[in-house]
Task: structure prediction
Amino acid sequence: MVTKTDPEGVTRLELPIAGMHCAACALKVEKGLAAAPGVTTAVVNYATQQATVNCQPDHASLADLVKTVENSGYRVATASARLPIAGIHCAGCVARIEKALAAVPGVVKAAVNLATSEATIEFLPNLAGLGDLKKAVAAAGDYRVLETGPAEVADPLEAIRNRELTDLKRKLAIGVVLTTVLMAAHFRDHLSMLLAVSPQAMHYLEFLLALPVYLYVGWQFHRGALIALRHWSADMNTLVSVGTTAAFAYSAIATFRPSLFAALQEGMPPVYYETAAMIITLILLGRLLEARAKGRTGAAIKKLIGFSPKTARVLRQGEEIETPIEDVVAGETIVIRPGERLPVDGTVLDGASAVDESMLTGESLPVDKTPGSAVFGGTLNKNGSFRFRAEKVGRDTVLAQIVRIVQEAQGSKAPIQRLADRIAGVFVPIVMSLAGLTFLVWYSLGPEPALTRALLSFVAVLIIACPCAMGLATPTAIMVGTGKGAEYGILIKGGPALEQAHRLTAVVFDKTGTLTRGEPSLTDVLPLGGRSREEVLAIAAGAEKPSEHPLSLAILDAARETGLTVPKAEQFEVLPGRGIRAGWDSRRYFLGNEAFIAEQFALPDEAAAQYAALAAQGKTPMILADERQVLGLLAVADTLKPDARQAVEALQKMGLAVWMITGDNRRTAEAIARSAGIDHVLAEVLPGQKADKIRELQQDGQVVAMVGDGINDAPALAAADVGIALGSGTDVAMESGDITLMHGSLSGVERAIALSRRTVRTIKQNLFWAFFYNVIGIPIAAGILYPFFGIQLQPMFAAAAMAMSSVSVVTNSLQLRGIRLDVPSLPRPGDG
Result:
């Protein structure tokens, strides 16, 4: 993610955070970053393991933020690169290069070794790339990075996740084996008699089996608890560590100093090594399943990034050279062959082909490309070859911007998550207090053996109360939902937009360029006096041919599409606001409005009636006449998009009020609205007044979405509760609204709202079960069922329930990956 600076000088940084294991961890990092000097806001997303920090760059450096995270007990996941550099001769060279590298946004630290002529750089690959580092070295002086072959910087957070998964699998395997043996030791009485081994000796054996599980397999929990204690806080690791330590320590004392329990009970006191081991093993299993599931929630980003090729075939000095994509420079000529993906954005110079742009727009049909056509990086060339000029490279390409928008959306927090965050912030201390109270009640009032029962309930309460499910409920659904939207060409900028869209009560469409095509087209040709349609159209096109007026172009385009031969005017005169006069072959023709033709001769009643009827439909009618009579009528209008009426009907079926806003006069506006099936019209609205009209609807209690083309509707898009911009991959479109529809189809509005409703429903389901689980689970673990049914929850069952709670929440979110946002007028991604 490239740093982004707004007009007020606030820079946004995306920091990958390693080491977080629950929502409480995320809150701890968030509080630490928010309190750092120069930081205006900080949001940490547990599901994405990412911090979004807005800061004043003059007061907060990247190195300071990295240190702040480390002081909180976690770390920023950085990548490292070693670059061999030619041209280093002295310590001055070293200082210049280090200074240049340190100035690259995203570089945490850089060191250059004079002896080896090599630079070692620690950096964030989402902020800086190898291309940026190479350019910085070249800009420092007469230096260059020696080519070592195509290099790729892996996502450090992904690498950490993979190492953690490997570590979890290894520890889980050890835990399963040792715990299985310990569970078998439940039969120690029979086993001890069979082997003639005393119970005391069996306890020693169990201690030796449980010790590796407690210390090695469970070390990550104990380490996390110690880090939290050092910062005077508590998290999920604290609950697990305290619970297992209590069970293990009690058992160890009972094993080595059983005399301490002589006054409390007769015989050998029981031990719970298998309980401690089972808790650690089950929670590790749950963490492994959770990590795998969380990895699948980010599949959309990985898929998008995977569309970008690693190399490009560049034409340099007349030769085709394959070069790493980060070395492509704007202005160079790129050669594309059949079946290849385009490396960067640009404009076709020569050649022709069909390009599959479904990964950008969701449209499955290939788009024909000829000289002058825009092409985009990551799209797939089908069957032809062409050359194009690179215009946007690196982070400026449309694909890179889409990845950035989706990553920002997945890293954001929806308003609905605030309740879960507030609860998670105080959850662990409350649980520890409840566990302590449970121990005291059981120890004071419980039946014998009171100490044993008190200990088991204490551990069960600590273990069953896991804040992970609450922390994962919202962000996992947001991640999957925004990724699903990207598959359909729906770019959702953040959790707030995704959540707000489900509350909409009204949708306001801009007319020109949104509901309509945005350019006039010929809609009617009505011949009179026995003439044919083709004859009237040919004469009108001949009269309009010298003109460049949009209405003239609409008539000429219709004539060309029909295949007519258009006469060449020998005389031509424009009469502004009235019409034109033209002539050829000794004949004169008039084409214009009713008043202009009436100046030549009296209009027939039939012509006047047809003119009035066309005007009533919101069209622009014109009368064609020669010196003696009316030859026919033509009408031009900005026509509706093919899917406009269907999209409006679909939104109305969803219970939404649909409005149209336009600067056209009311008669024209109402005619267009009728064609689209829209009942509510805001007409004669100046461009600067659109935002005011949106606010008026909001004041009436409506939750409003504004749908515009993303170019001239920016104020209204910003004023709406949700701004939906229709774009074709333009920078302006993607920056204008809260939601951008890359394919530009109106049916995408329904898809976006349907996706929002499904995602929010999933979030609510997740939150319900996360809260319900704890509300029910904690009292059961405390022993509320014992007075009525004699049931006391064993800690190992509490561990299994806790592990499955997080997995169930993530799994429920993953179901969003399978939904089909089917709208008949749009193809499905991958179809075709």
Observations:
- Confidence is low (pLDDT under 50) at residues 823-832.
